[in-house]
Amino acid sequence: MADPHPGRPSDREDKRTFLQKLIEFIHPGPDSTDELIATLAEAETNDVINADARVMLERVLLMAEMTASDVMVPSTRMDLLDIGAPLETLVNQVIDTAHSRFPVFQDERENIIGVLLAKDLLKLRRAPELNIRALLRPAVFVPESKGLNDLLRDFRSTRSHMAVVIDEFGRVAGLVTIEDVLEQIVGEIEDEFDIPEDAGDIFRLADQTWRVSGDTSVERVAEAFGVVLQASDPEEEFDTIGGLIVHELGRMPRKDEPVVLGGLQFVVLHAKGGAVRWFKVSPATDADMAAAAGTASSG
């Protein structure tokens, strides 16, 4: 059959000049991600791009090989709201965790029925007759194998900021947010709990307790509170208070779980990326220490 548009160049026509073909023959382009990353490093060395651009481009390339399971918050550390809880309980949980949106479950944590924006709770304050179900947004569910590139595209098209990750058996495996995905490109995005290192790491709160960064050195915390902080094994040494507490507990502390150490009670205020960002710290009472001792003996 004759070409109906003989004057139109073919879509597959190679428009490269002879010189471009010759250069590519002599200096072929990268054939793999590793080669492309090496090319980016060379471009930085030759001042074609700066270091920040190289790092971001490398992250984009590596993100293409990642899935939702690589960046999700595991289900055991998800902060969920129980639709059957009293309003005051929900408000306190929102304040304590400082998230802007929450998956909401009914009866059991596996049964997620929607997403609630923290700001929508204000509507319940003003109009208690409202049904909280009317404020829920649809929950987005994605498989663990969902590629981050596809997930980011879905977030943009649906204008969602959060997705519940489901494993191969249909169970809730974790939670992933658009922030988790973007951080793979631009690095960690600071939030209201993040402060510059030179701005301090121990703050006094209005209720006469303190907010302490998990990255604060053990020595600084001990000096600030006038206590002795050391591992149960004298041969073990830890640089940060977060590392010391995780070691003593044998795992990551759960949200609101009290940990008594050196006469102080540490309660997790905010955790992110598998590490405790902030503790709420107060002097441990006799009841706190007795409860901690009872927990240790039962374990």
Report on the structure:
With 299 residues, the protein is an alpha+beta fold. It is built from eleven helices and twelve strands. It has a five-stranded antiparallel beta sheet with strand order 8-9-12-11-10. It has a four-stranded mixed beta sheet with strand order 1-7-6-5. The longest helix is centred in the first third of the chain and has 13 residues, at 33-45. Residues 4-12 and 191-199 have low confidence and may be disordered.
Task: Describe the secondary-structure layout.
Blueprint: H1 18-26, H2 33-45, H3 51-63, H4 68-71, E1 73-74, E2 81-82, H5 87-97, E3 101-106, E4 108-117, H6 121-126, E5 141-143, H7 148-158, E6 162-166, E7 172-177, H8 178-186, E8 202-204, E9 210-213, H9 218-225, H10 241-249, E10 258-261, E11 264-272, E12 275-283, H11 286-298
Parallel strand pairs: 2-3, 5-6
Antiparallel strand pairs: 1-7, 3-4, 6-7, 8-9, 9-12, 10-11, 11-12
Provide the β-strand percentage band: 15-25%
For this entry, what is the oligomeric state of its chains? single chain
Would you report the number of β strands? 12
Q: What is the string of helix and strand elements?
A: HHHHEEHEEHEHEEHEEHHEEEH
Would you identify the regions where 5 or more consecutive residues have pLDDT less than 50? 4-12, 191-199
- Share of residues in helices: 25-40%
Q: Given the helix and strand composition, which structural class is it? A: alpha+beta
Query: In order across it, which strands form the biggest sheet?
Result: 8-9-12-11-10
Q: Sum up the overall morphology in one term.
A: globular
For the termini, the CA-CA separation is 81 Å
The total count of helices amounts to: 11
Main sheet properties: 5 strands, antiparallel
Q: What does the radius of gyration come to?
A: 26 Å
Mean pLDDT: 78
